[in-house]
Amino acid sequence: MPSIEGMDMLRKPETAVERPLWVHGGPIFWIVGVGAVFAAFWISGGHALVR
Predict the structure, then answer these.
(1) To which H or E segment does residue 51 belong?
(2) Residue 15, exposed/middle/buried by CB under 10 A (0-12, 13-18, 19+)?
(3) What is the pLDDT of residues 4-22, one digit of tens each?
(4) What are the pLDDT digits (tens) for 25-49?
(5) Which of 19, 25, 43, 45 is a plausible cystine mate for 29, CB 3.0–4.6 Å?
(6) Within its chain, how far is the Cα of 39 from the centroid?
(7) Cα–Cα dist 21/37, whole Å
(8) Is the pTM of this model over 0.90?
(9) What is the 3-state secondary structure (H, E, C) of 10-42?
């Protein structure tokens, strides 16, 4: 197949690029995320369920 100049960037690389394990978010990311969800629940009326 003839190579079209400038279109080589669309081809997949020959070697697979490995991602580091920390790409998916560390524990601090998840703690802050769960805390934000809990705070939004509490502020929007979740505190009324506890009484």
Answers:
(1) none
(2) exposed
(3) 677 777 777 777 667 665 5
(4) 789 999 999 999 999 999 999 988 8
(5) 25
(6) 21
(7) 25
(8) no
(9) HCCCCCCCCCCHHHHCCHHHHHHHHHHHHHHHH
